[in-house]
Hints:
By secondary structure, the chain is an alpha+beta fold. Helix content is 36%, strand content 35%.
Amino acid sequence: VRCRALPVMQRAVEGPRYVEVPFVLCKDGVVVEGYVDLVFRDGDDIVLVDFKTDDVSPQDADKRAQGYEGQMALYAAALEDLVGRPPARVYLVFVSPGVEVEMDGPELARRGHELPLASVAETSE
């Protein structure tokens, strides 16, 4: 409930939004499938949001978010493939403490396209 008051969530309810957006990334014979929790328009920008249920304090949220950078890079790259441009911003919303962590969408998308999918597929099996 705390996360509903976050600025990113307030902006998400103001316009078109899409939940559980499916994606497929294919590279070098490797296929990775997943779902982006929330995508919405913020003016001319596309914003990606992923919800996390980690038991983390507000003070440790930024550090915890670093552990999700690879996943968010894949999501940003997949979204860029879907809509033709990267998300302007990516947010991790830690639900329990009601904290949002903002990440650079274009940079994550660039890194996601460079990431070897074989390493991701192996760790997710």
